[in-house]
Fold this sequence. Notes:
Elements: H1 14-24, H2 35-46, H3 52-65, H4 69-82, E1 110-111, E2 127-133, E3 147-148, E4 152-160, E5 189-197, E6 209-214, E7 241-246, E8 252-262, E9 265-277, E10 287-293, E11 309-315, E12 321-327, E13 330-337, H5 339-355, E14 358-361, E15 368-371, H6 381-402, H7 406-415, E16 421-426, E17 451-452, H8 454-462, E18 479-480, H9 486-489, E19 491-493, E20 507-508, E21 516-521, H10 527-538, E22 543-547, H11 550-559, E23 564-568, E24 570-572, E25 586-589, E26 593-595, H12 597-603, H13 611-615, E27 618-621, H14 635-643, E28 648-652, H15 658-673, H16 678-691, E29 700-703, E30 709-710
Parallel strand pairs: 3-9, 11-16, 16-19, 17-18, 20-30, 21-22, 21-23, 23-27, 27-28
Antiparallel strand pairs: 1-7, 2-4, 4-7, 5-6, 5-8, 8-9, 9-10, 11-12, 12-13, 14-15, 24-25, 25-26, 28-29
Helix pairs in contact: 2-3, 3-4, 5-6, 10-15, 12-14, 15-16
Amino acid sequence: MRHENGYTGPPRWKLEEDLRALRASDLWHRPELADEARDEWEALLSDEDIDQEEFEGRHTDILILCGGASETWDLFEARLREGERGLSDEVPIRSGPPPAAADTGGDPVEFDVEPEPDSAPVNEDRFLNLAVVWPLSRQTVPEDRTLGSGSRYELRVDIGELSTKSLLAGQAKPFPESPLPHTDDEGRGDWLEVSVVSEDFTFPAVVVHPLFLPLQGGSWVCPCPPGGRHVCEAGHRGRHLHIPFIAPEEPGPARMRVYVSYRGNQLQSVSLTAWVAARESAGGATTAVIDYTLTPGFADLAELPARTAGVRVGRGGDGTMTVDVTSQYGPVATFWLGDHQVLDVLQKARAALLDCHAVWKGEGKDRHLESLLGPDNGKSPEARFHDMAKLARLGWSFFQMIARGRRERAALMSVLREPAQIQICREEHQDLVFPWGLLYDIRVESQTQLTPCGPGFAQVAADATARSCPAPEGHGLNTLCPYGFWGYRHFIEHPPSVPRGRRLRLTAGRPGAAPALTVARSNRLDARLADRHLTMLRAGFRQMNVYDRSATLRDALISDPGDCVYFYGHGRRPRAAEGEYSSATVLEIGDTDRILPEDLNAWAGDEGWDRWDELAPLVFLNGCHTADRTPSSWLGFVDTFTELHASGVIGTEITMDQALAGEFAERFWAALLDGEEVGAAMHRVRIELLRKGNVLGLAYTAYCSAALRLRSGR
C-alpha cells in the first residue's frame, strides 16, 4: 500500500521514521532548504532495495553536501527533543564562514544543543577535548575500535573541563589561555579558529570553524559572525563543535591534524591517528597527542599582525616528520616526510649554500675553507645570477614537496602571493628543520636557462626594505626573480615552544639603558679579522665584555649576562666517546673549551641566573660548523636557551666564512640597535648582502618572534 507521500510500507528503521516525519512537517518547506536536498531525501525514502547502512550513509551525505539540509535536520531533532516548546524556525547553530561569506554548498558542520556547562573558576585550567563520534547518535567511538572503511564519523571538539571521553584525557596539557587578549565580544572572551588537515580522511569544504571561548566555563558554537558581538541566546549555543569526515577506503593507519588558532597564530595542535578496517571491529587503536603548544604565555597577541600562514613541524606516531600548512582561510597543504627525505633536503640545501661562497681545500688537519667571495664579501652580477638560478631550481623542488598537487600549489601561491608573516611552529625537541627561506614558488624547469626579472632586481638595488616585485605579472615559466624566494619576500618566524607559565618574549634586554653585549669568542679564528669585528661591535653597544674561557663566561652569564649574548666561534662535532651526544653541535670558545646544553643547565642552577627572567637576552650563535655538509644544527641550544629565559636565538645552518659571518652580525646588530624588529632586520641584511651578489643571508635563521626587538636602541 502506497502512503500519501509516495513511499510504501511501514518505516524500516528509526531514522526512516524520523525522515518521514520531517517530510510531513512545516520544516520541509523552509526556504533555506535547497531543492536538491528535498529531491535527494525523496529518492532515499522511495528506495525500497536499500539496507540500513547505505540508508544512513546517504542521509549523512545529504546533510554534508546539500544546502540547508544540516540546519533543517538540527531544527527537526531539537523539535523532537523539546516537543516544539519555544522553538522557532530561526537560523540554526552552524559552523563555517559568517553569512556574508561565499556559498559553500550547504553547511557541513553540525552542533549539538546541550546546555552550557556551569562556569569554571577564573583560574582553573581548561583543556582541549577531542573525540570521534558516530554521526547520528553522537556517541563516542571507543578508542580500541577500528573505523570502517568509507564510513562517516564526526570529530567532536570543545575547550573546557577535561572530559574522560576525550582522546587527550591521558596526557592532557592545559589550553594556553594567557596569549589571548580577551577583546572579542566587548571583552567577554575570544573567537578561536579550529581547522583540520589530512591526506587520509575526507573533510567537508568548510575548513575554518569558529569556536568562542568565554572568560570562564566551556567553549561554545553559535550562529553569530566570528569576531563580532554575540546576539545569540543561551539556547542557540552548542557545547560541542562537530566536524563530519569520511574514513579512507584503504585499510591501515590514517592521520589528521587538528589546529586551534587565534588570528592565524597557532595556539595548540593535535595529531590523531586511527586504524581503518573493512568494517568496524575490535582491535583498533585511535590515539591523539598534543604535539605543539605555541606559547602558554604569548605576549600581546592582539598587537601582533595576523599571521598569513602557519606551518607546524612535528613528529608523527611512526617517527616521520609531519608538516602542515594553514592560512587564515584554512588548511592549504599537509605532508609527511621520512627522516631520510628530510636529511636529503637539508644536505642539498646546505651544500648548495656552501658552494655559493666557499670550497673545501686540503686534507686532514690541513682541510680548510677557501672563500669564493671578493674582498667585500660580494660576487659579480654573473656569479650572483648563477648562484640564484641554482638555488631557484632547488627551491622549486622543495616547494613541490610541501605542495604536491597542482591545486595545493595554486592555493599556496594565492595565499602567499604578497609579502606575508609565516609562523613556523616546531615541536619541542624536533631536531630537523626545513629550509623555508630557500623555497621558490615561481615555476622553473631543471635544465632550461632562466630569464632574469628586470623589475625585481632593480627593486633590490633601490630599496633594501622592499619585499615584493613591482611587476609580478611578468613571472612566467623560468623567470628568476629575487622575490620568488620565501626568504626575500616573507618574514619567517620560528617561535619556540616555551614552558607553562612563561611568555614568549617580544622584547629583549633591560629597560632604560642602551644594550650591553656579552661575547664568547674563539681564539682559533683569524686574529686580525676577529679583532676588527669585535672593534666594530664595541662601537655600537653601551658596554661589551669578551670571554674566551668557559669558567669566566659562566660567571658572567650568571652575574651580569648583558642584554645580548654573542657566541663568535666554532661549532664542533660532538664527541660521543666523551659523553657529548645531547646536541648535534658543540660550542667551542677560547682555545679548546667546549660547551654543551647540559653545561648551560648546570650553570642555570645558580640563583644568579634568575636575572635572565628579567633581561631575556637575545642570543646569537655565529659559529662555523664542522668541516662537512651534514645537517647539524643549533636546535639543542635553541631549546635550552629558551628554557633558560632567552628571548630568542639567531643561528646559521652552514659553515660560514669568517669575514662573511662577521659582516652579517655587524649589520644585524646595527639594525636591531636602530630599533628594527628581528624579522625586518633579518630581511634587511639579506637584501643588503644580495645587492653585493651574496645569497648567504638565506643561511641565517631566527628562532623567536619576528616582532622581537631590543628594549632600547641608540
